[in-house]
Amino acid sequence: MGFNNFCSALAYFLVGLILIAFGTCEGGFTSNYVRRNDLSLDMPLDSDVFRAPPGYNAPQQVHLTQGDHEGRAVIVSWITPDEPGSNAVIYWAANSKLKKSVHGIVLTYKYYNYTSGYIHHCTIKNLEYDTKYYYVVRSGNTKRQFWFTTPSKPNPNTPYTFGLIGDLGQTYDSNRTLTHYEMNPVKGQTLLFVGDLSYADNYPFHDNTRWDTWGRFIERNAGYQPWIWTAGNHELDFVPDIGETKPFKPYTHRFFVPYQASGSTSPLWYSIKRASAYIIVMSSYSAYGKYTPQYKWLISELPKVNRTETPWLIVLMHSPMYSSYVHHFMEGETMRVMYESWFVEYKVDVVFAGHVHAYERSERVSNIAYNIVNGLCSPVKDHSAPVYITIGDGGNQEGLATEMTQPQPSYSAYREASFGHGTFDIKNRTHAYFSWHRNQDGFSVEADSLWFHNRYWKSMEEQSVAVS
Ligand SMILES: *[C@@H]1O[C@H](CO)[C@@H](O)[C@H](O)[C@H]1NC(C)=O
Ligand SMILES: *[C@@H]1O[C@H](CO)[C@@H](O)[C@H](O)[C@H]1NC(C)=O
Ligand SMILES: *[C@@H]1O[C@H](CO)[C@@H](O)[C@H](O)[C@H]1NC(C)=O
Ligand SMILES: *[C@@H]1O[C@H](CO)[C@@H](O)[C@H](O)[C@H]1NC(C)=O
Ligand SMILES: [Fe+2]
């Protein structure tokens, strides 16, 4: 026994040495997890997940997002295929019999030779915080009932759990990702979606019926909890050759966001508060240089974040600023040069991005010292910097980005080319637990995880220790 113990101690020591060697020479950890190398095929049009609900002109593609800045409103969107039908949403609190009704708007759009169904958007305002509501959308006699739960009033200590999915598409893998998110014992209350939704643009003439199938696919989740939208490159649908010159046309008609509530002039960038988090959504595919609308909005937005009210500051964008994969390498670089110093100055906790079809988590680093002549252009450890997480691994038909730059840069803490989803589980003002679940393990295994210590409150505590 003694000898065996000695042997295992020695073995652990050697493994430790090897890990240290890798840690110092090659940066972080590249998972050697062996994936099944099957193609990510789109689910066929007659799949169960794409089935239209029964009944003439039945409302379909029901989805929710937050409808104001504070979390007291919800935007309910749905599509009726044959005629406009009712514009109203009927809703009531679970603990009350008083039914209320609110009317929204209906619109349609054309894309090349496609004509959309009747797209309804209806904002329910002045909801009670922390309350479960039922709601009904209808057309004629066909009624469909769903529910949602409002968050608490923005305040520093409410636990709140966000799910994270990016680049989802509509393959068998997309369905696995969504199923694992739904089955995760850590129950996501709101989904942060980091862009690239349907991948309809990979079809001839950007066949927009694949936007409709996607809407029906996600309804089973997005009809019950808000999905917070970020625009990706697959939302551009910009094809001058077929006369489609208005970028983001299908996306902006189908997915409304409460951008005006945060003083934004475009649905492509905006912010919301939700319980203990402040979420800033940015657009990688809109102008962001100095003097542009997005720049002007962000520079006045960041100082408004009150970390006493909402301690957790989360930024979403599609193209990652830090990614060590070969695919899309350095595409986020110009935005990094523009905005990274602000993220450090305002102590952003975490930046989530998609675009690269894989998973990666950075160390807390910054690269903001360069001034053309000083040569200081490498990332350095920085306790005020956010963690950058790429979660573009929803499972779309383009497949995984498996090729990585070598060696792994020291800023990269963990990278792995597998499909999966994440959860960001806020416990209180100071602590949040992030975990990433690869699809191959089912829903219960965390392949990577990290305790987050709130950047703002951690530095406040360190300062008060230093003073006293
Ligand atoms: C649109 O045009 C394409 C190419 O000509 C064709 O295959 C498709 O059936 C058309 N769709 C509609 C709705 O007319
Ligand atoms: C998608 O996932 C759901 C839930 O796991 C399952 O019921 C359904 O059959 C799946 N559909 C396809 C086409 O994989
Ligand atoms: C920040 O939020 C706290 C808590 O809601 C509030 O007491 C304080 O007045 C706010 N600060 C500012 C500058 O608005
Ligand atoms: C915040 O949550 C963490 C993790 O659950 C816990 O260790 C810590 O004591 C909590 N802090 C407060 C003030 O409750
Ligand atoms: Fe993308």
UniProtKB/TrEMBL annotation:
SUPFAM superfamilies: Metallo-dependent phosphatases (SSF56300), Purple acid phosphatase, N-terminal domain (SSF49363). GO terms for molecular function: acid phosphatase activity; metal ion binding. Coiled coil: none annotated. The keyword Glycoprotein applies. Its EC number is 3.1.3.2. Pfam families: Metallophos (PF00149), Metallophos_C (PF14008), Pur_ac_phosph_N (PF16656). It catalyses: a phosphate monoester + H2O = an alcohol + phosphate. Keywords: Glycoprotein, Hydrolase, Iron, Metal-binding, Signal, Zinc. Residues 1-27 form the signal peptide. Its cofactor is Zn(2+); Mn(2+); Fe cation; Cu(2+). Residues 58-164 form the Fibronectin type-III domain. Homodimer; disulfide-linked. Belongs to the metallophosphoesterase superfamily. Purple acid phosphatase family. This is Purple acid phosphatase. It comes from Olea europaea subsp. europaea.
